[in-house]
Specification:
Blueprint (H helix, E strand, L loop, with lengths): L1 E2 L5 H7 L7 E5 L2 H8 L8 H4 L3 E5 L2 H5 L16 E4 L19 H5 L4 E7 H6 L2 H9 L4 E11 L4 E11 L6
Parallel strand pairs: 1-2, 1-4, 2-3, 4-5
Antiparallel strand pairs: 5-7, 6-7
Amino acid sequence: MVGGLGLGYTAQAVLESDNVRSLIVVDALQPVIEWHEKGLLPLGRTLADDARCTLLHGDFFALAGSETGFDPEAPGRTFDAILVDIDHSPEALLDAGNASFYRPEGFAGLPRIFVLAGCSVCGRTIAPTRLTARLGGVFAQTRAEPVTFHNPLQDRPFTQTVYLAQTQSGPA
């Protein structure tokens, strides 16, 4: 499960694994999904044409807190992993209504592995130890991994933080 479609690079990275049998990608913007379906983005129709991938128009945060969950075809379906690639954080919300997602009760409904990936807002506005501590209230194992890369648009190094959490101890 991937929350956030954007240009599709997170979803593409997931689909590169031979272990992935199915993937649901939720995006709040129907036009973004249509751009993928029409091949208007750099990945072309790669995601839309992959039989394992379903592009779902919806509010990730509302679906995460709902009883039916992320799969309208199989209400209550569980996932091995959820990756969130939405420029959003507990202290820089896109919508104040999403705040409950970052509370223990919001995290508690997540699967055994949870990854908050590529979230530049998170890296800038909340100290990694603070979000890791929030995750640690629910998950057995959490960590923050800063990823530094050259940003060609700003011609300088840029760091984003990836947060990983899992319910059991051991390798993720």
